[in-house]
Amino acid sequence: MFSHMMVGANDVQESKVFYDAILGAMGHKPGVIDEKGRCFYFTETGIFAVTPPIDGKPATHGNGCTVGFAAKDPAQADAWHAAGVANGGVSCEDAPGVREGGLGKLYLAYLRDPSGNKVCALHMMG
């Protein structure tokens, strides 16, 4: 459904350290910085990018917005969360764990990146 997702960052290098760590915990390659100072993560299913806002104003997080990354299992979600906390992220929401709702059982882990964007690792439980 989606081709790419892009979030704003006030310090792309700081954000690259954070995203290299959390996405590396999921087996993804480090981000690539382009000539405009944006950082891109390429996968077979899409692209995730971090960029300074094009209008030159400070990056702000979207209230109510979350970027979700698919975790293959709860252990990977936990590793993702630990890597994020160790690399400039801040834990938010409840502690990583199982939540039950209309979509069934989900294993979720939430973080705020260095610019305040909310990100999540999600594993859909059998």
Automatic annotation (TrEMBL):
<feature type="domain" description="Glyoxalase/fosfomycin resistance/dioxygenase">
    <location>
        <begin position="3"/>
        <end position="120"/>
    </location>
</feature>
<dbReference type="InterPro" id="IPR004360">
    <property type="entry name" value="Glyas_Fos-R_dOase_dom"/>
</dbReference>
<dbReference type="InterPro" id="IPR029068">
    <property type="entry name" value="Glyas_Bleomycin-R_OHBP_Dase"/>
</dbReference>
<protein>
    <submittedName>
        <fullName>VOC family protein</fullName>
    </submittedName>
</protein>
<dbReference type="Pfam" id="PF00903">
    <property type="entry name" value="Glyoxalase"/>
</dbReference>
